[in-house]
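hey can u run this one w/ PMT bound, need the structure tokens asap thx
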Amino acid sequence: MPHLQTKRILLGVTGGVAAYKAAELTRLLVKAGADVRVVMTEAATHFVTPLTFQALSGKPVLTQLWDAGADNGMAHIDFSRDVDALLIAPASADFIAKLVHGVADDLLSTLCLARACQLFVAPAMNRQMWDNPATRRNIAQLRADGVTLLGPASGAQACGETGPGRMLEPDELLSLLTASLQPKSLAGKRVLVTAGPTIEAIDPVRALTNMSSGKMGYAVAQAAQAAGAEVVLVSGPTCLTAPANVQLVAVRSAADMAAAVDAALGGVDIFISVAAVADYRPAQPSEQKLKKSDAPLTLALLPNPDILADVASRADAPFCVGFAAESKNLLAYGEAKRQRKRLPLIVVNRVQDALGSDDNELWLLDDAGSHALARADKLTLACQLIDHIANLYSLQKQG
Ligand code: PMT
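ok here u go:
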């Protein structure tokens, strides 16, 4: 369950086709427990009616500076004072330009200027508008002003073109907002995360590897960063972009990963080993491409170093968290791994559910037993896992 139960969100909707997705976003935010108030620009009302947002949020929708119905006539200031976050979705190129220049000529832009909370912006526009130097400058300025950009994604656009500028999907916006609003339970802590597969070369073109996409590990890194930690992410090859404000160290083989972990370990408080490290590597990788023949090929394999077990056995070991992907006897096999590697916590997931997917289901095994985390997207689960880790870590430090 996303942690938005006590959060008050002001959702600003500006004029763009993606305004229809803001209706679904409102529904998801309310479902996640947030108290949502919607403010629309005049342009937005040409795409979706205020009544839609009123029905979904359960609150009157404000559109005009002059009829903002707050008790003291100060709605243009009050509504963004008392909230945990102001999210503009979709944010048109025009509205972004207004934000950059501090223009306050309607209710939503005035609320943005008068806000006392974090501002999140989910851009949505045609790819050429997104690539225009004026927009590039405006986006850079928003970032410099401390505004959090959510997206945009790249893909098919309403105008029929393809490229960057698509608003993120409502469920992605919900996950990113949820992560950003988590308590800063790891403030001041240094967290090291491994993610993705490793690649063990057989020859210059062939390799042993596995199906890890890196999604779970990247989500854990993002959740730790959102919880206030300084995060280093050591990752095998993936197609993913590192989360913002996370230091990425890209590696290929298990030996590379072991060396990168060793180099990054100084001052680390928590080590979370999500990577699917290849257990074996070819004993003698060939420098030249092996020639195909009709004869059977036997590869001699050597076991790779167990990075997590090695870190956990150090005298000055950080708080170590392992992952275990199992296809049967999940809890028994997971607990056996936890004991063998002497870990305070191991996270068990089902191979069939976890590898490459966007959603997952987790079981956290620690000294107190097993805690199930219901199926959800990986970032939501990662936030819940980080909460659990922060609690265990602080208990360990107290005891
Ligand atoms: O990347 P995704 O597609 O999102 O998939 C996520 C995942 C399935 C890879 C992830 O959730 C997961 O379960 N990772 C651990 C996979 C696994 O089963 O690892 P293992 O049983 O081989 O190792 C147990 C633990 O020791 C893991 O924390 C692993 O990172 C670590 N290990 C293992 C071998 C090794 N040589 N060095 C290690 O550090």
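The two ends are 30 Å apart (CA to CA). anyway lmk if its weird
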